[in-house]
Structures are given as structure tokens and as C-alpha cells.
Specification:
single chain; 238 residues; alpha/beta; Rossmann fold; Arc Repressor Mutant, subunit A; five-stranded parallel sheet; four-stranded antiparallel sheet; 12 strands; globular
Length: 238
């Protein structure tokens, strides 16, 4: 069965270009040109990925992203923006987007990025991801956190957590290297698989998201420690 994508952009030429290239790559593509329509579709239908433009009439991409995450719709989101502005990129990530691309872009790059996100998001390939990360087929526990790689699930205090694909893979990678200091560049290259030159802030945003979900006090984390001037380290709580 083809994976379903929702493309949301108010520029018809971009929608047509992306739809053609993604359908040629074997995806089923649904399109929308307004934020409100996109929100309704993404809330009431199942999609494997959303390609969401930031600048939309009335309800913009940031609002759509925020509403979906607040409603526990965790479909991966690739955000598009014509603005080469760090604030917009980071805000999108903070609201729950998994990745972003700045216009103009090549259709080939979009297809490659879509494939990369779907590989991480698709539970059917979790075994391959676990193999890449070096885990055996068992639960990984530290403190009150339990990761089940095969089920693509994380429990905190026996309660299932809602994690985006990037958050899950980042936590999995940190757990696989428990006790080791990992630089932002190391995490960026390991989890995102390509370099955001000068954009290691993407790592900080996702670390912040994880802390909100597994730390009782985010200002005094017991699991994910900041190593000043270096990066991060996942530890067993004392």
C-alpha cells in the first residue's frame, strides 16, 4: 500500500511540482491550499507525512502544526518556508515539526527528505533502526523510562508517551550511548543523517521536548544532562 502524503501550500505551482515528483516516487498525494482545510484533513484522515508551508492564508502553517500536536496528532511534519530566518525555523520545531526546508528547493531534495523522515517514522522499519543503533530486541530501561524499540514505544512511569519520530530516535540514540558525552554535531549527524550547517539549535529544541516528557523538573534534569561547552549526556538517576 502506498504511503499517503498531504501537501499544503498556497502556491499552485509548488503544489503541482511536489505532487508530480512524489507521485512518480510511488506516494499517494492529497493536496490542500489553505491551513483550515489542511487541519481538517490531517485531523480526520490518516497520513504518513505532512508537507506544510509556513506562510498560508488565514490559518498559517505554525498554527496548523500547533493545533495538530495539541490534539495528539503526531503525524511527521516537514515544514516549508520561504524565509531564511532562524526564528521561523526554530519556532516551527518548537511547535512540533520534525524537519524543515527553505525555499527554493529541488524536487529531488524534497523526495530524499521525505524518504528519510518516513524511514524513521514507520514502525515497520524499527527493527532496521534498532540494528543501526546497536540494540538487541528487548526493553531499554533507565530510571522510570522504558523504551520498546520494536513497538516504537516509550513509557514514563508506566504511561505511554507521545513522541514525534525525531524525539523517539534521539532518545533511542542517547540511551544507546548512555553515560557518554555527545556533542550537538554528533547528535545532529546521527539522528538527522545530514548536516544543518550552523543549525545545531535543532538538537537543543528536541532535547527540550524530551525533557518536558521524561523529566519531573526540567530545570533540574536527572536523565538528560547538559555538559556545558560540549553537549549532552544521558545518565541513570542517582
Amino acid at each position: 500500500m502506498s504511503q499517503r502524503l498531504l501537501i499544503v501550500d498556497d502556491e499552485e505551482s509548488i503544489v503541482t511540482l511536489l505532487q508530480f515528483n512524489l507521485e512518480q516516487s510511488g506516494y499517494e498525494v492529497i493536496t490542500a491550499m489553505e491551513g483550515a482545510t489542511a487541519l481538517e484533513l490531517a485531523t480526520n484522515q490518516n497520513f504518513d507525512l505532512l508537507i506544510l508551508d509556513l506562510m498560508l492564508p488565514e490559518l498559517n502553517g505554525l498554527d496548523v502544526c500547533k493545533s495538530l500536536r495539541q490534539n495528539k496528532v503526531m503525524t511527521p511534519i516537514l515544514m516549508l518556508t520561504a524565509k531564511d530566518d532562524e526564528f521561523d525555523k526554530i519556532l516551527g520545531l518548537e511547535l512540533g515539526a520534525d524537519d524543515y526546508m527553505t525555499k527554493p528547493f529541488s524536487p529531488r531534495e524534497v523526495v530524499a527528505r521525505v524518504r528519510a523522515i518516513l524511514r524513521r517514522a514507520n514502525p515497520s522499519i524499527t527493527e532496521a533502526m534498532v540494528g543501526k543503533s546497536g540494540f538487541q530486541d528487548h526493553v531499554i530501561k533507565f530510571g522510570e523510562v522504558a523504551i520498546y524499540p520494536e513497538n516504537y514505544e516509550v513509557l514514563f512511569k508506566n504511561q505511554s508517551l507521545e513522541l514525534t519520530p525525531k524525539e523517539f530516535e534521539l532518545l533511542l540514540y542517547l540511551a544507546n550511548h548512555k553515560g557518554r558525552v555527545l556533542t550537538r554535531d554528533q547528535l545532529l549527524n546521527a539522528v538527522w543523517n545530514y548536516e544543518f550547517v550552523g543549525d545545531t539549535r535543532i538538537v537543543d529544541v528536541h532535547i527540550s521536548h524530551l525533557r518536558e516528557k521524561i523529566e519531573v523538573n526540567t530545570k533540574k534534569p536527572v536523565y538528560i544532562k547538559t555538559i556545558r561547552g560540549l553537549g549532552y549526556k544521558l545518565e541513570e538517576p542517582l
